[in-house]
Amino acid sequence: MEQTPATISDPTRTGTPGDIFTAALTRLDEAAKLVGVDDEILTRLRRPKRVVQATIPLRLDDGTLCCLPAYRVQHDDSRGPCKGGIRFHPAVDLAEVQALAFWMTFKCAVVGIPFGGGKGGVVVDPKRLSGAELERLSRGYARAMADVIGPTRDVPAPDVYTNAMIMGWMMDEYSECHRGREPAVITGKPIALGGSLGREDATGRGAYYCIKELENQRGWTPSTIRVAIQGFGNAGQHVARLLQADGYRIVAVSDSRGGVARLEGLDVPALIEKKLGGRSLATGYSSKSVCDCPHCGSSSCSCGGARDERLISNAELLELDVDLLIPAALEEQLTEENADRIRARTVVEVANGPTTPMADLILEKRGVQVVPDILANAGGVTVSYFEWAQNRAGLQWSEPEVHARLRETMTRAFGSVMDMSKRKRVPLRAAAYACGLTAISEAISASGTQSYFSPTRSRRET
Ligand code: GLU
């Protein structure tokens, strides 16, 4: 009896209703309506190609053993090896890692680099680990995933609460497992271990290049543009620094403990110095917050207003009266709860997935322009690609060369997304997904879809 695929399993059912991966898939359906691709391609992209779930046994310094859940999701590799970061965070779960891997597939396609999408995570609060524990965890992750990652399979990189030092340990461990040095297995490494110049600030710099394009289009005068940045990690710090150097007024920044605001503009280099000053050499994590008082270091003292700086919460920062809002922290920050109260006219997403689909609809109705994550934060993975290419070719490019190539890539991608948005009369996010889906579907179709194998296919097409 002939069996249709639907009776074997329902290919449209993925994720759990209401989870972040299922929500992320709504972008795929929207894009499909715009560019009309073969259904089979959508069926493929609705599920990750591979999900690896592991347990990492971690021996703590006090001798106790703790078992940590770890994931690596390879969403799609039609355009090249999977690519995407590894995050260490207590709130990591499988749906989140699947969503993050899905976003990477589209991000790499939007900027036209030859990678698919992947992502990894460990459920852990890394700030509670010593340096030695962090190293054992990082090596444990590389061992657990050593059979599925690799320069031509899946190339990890830093993400939330992982950094160059961790990438170096993982590369070293993977190389031990494979009995040969393999720098191209991972990107975002220390320069001394094959890292690329310009990778450290690449995510912030890529977003900065997008903002320079907006500046051109809108005729902005930087000193009149008030900017609020949620998140002061690697990406947030660099975008703040680069924008302020061009005269933009950074009126508020925050981190996981809270934020600080000053109408006349904050002293960004001083805030970065404070953050970096609290950094532990063994782990790279900072014990200091941007909302620690510059005078006494406390986030609750009354002299916090000494330099007319006001302490604010993360939620308040999002709703400030600013021109440009930059979410650069975690997912789902702009939701149907607060989207009505966002006063910025432009949002540039440096975090992955900071805006929910419901919030997007509200922001669109209110005329807020959102430059989506899969374009705005693609600078990081773009320079990761440069690092991988340098490793494989045995070359090292200069920093100006990396910056020039990054600017060219970001400017080209920004232009294509803008053109698509104008042509289809849709917001930038839908346009970016449409651009991404076009590139992914070309790659999938090139290796054969149902219409290619159809018995009714005309001979002349062959
Ligand atoms: N974690 C970064 C991102 O979400 C960088 C990924 C990479 O360099 O592979 O884009």
- The fraction of residues assigned to DSSP E strands is 15-25%
CATH architecture of the domain at 5-9 and 49-181: 3-Layer(aba) Sandwich
Any idea what the CATH superfamily of the domain at 5-9 and 49-181 is called?
Leucine Dehydrogenase, chain A, domain 1
Radius of gyration: 22 Å
**Shape annotation:** globular
Structural class: alpha/beta
Report on the biggest sheet. 7 strands, mixed
Average pLDDT taken over every residue? 92
The overall strand count is: 12
> Could you state the order of secondary-structure elements as H and E?
HHHEEEHEHEHHEHEEHEHEEHEHHHHH
Distance between the termini: 30 Å
Helix content: 40-55%
Read across the widest sheet, the strand sequence of neighbours is 9-8-7-6-10-11-12
CATH class membership of the domain at 5-9 and 49-181: Alpha Beta
Indicate the CATH topology of the domain at 5-9 and 49-181.
Rossmann fold
Bound compounds, each kind once, are: glutamic acid
Low-confidence stretches: 1-7, 9-13
The total of helices stands at 16
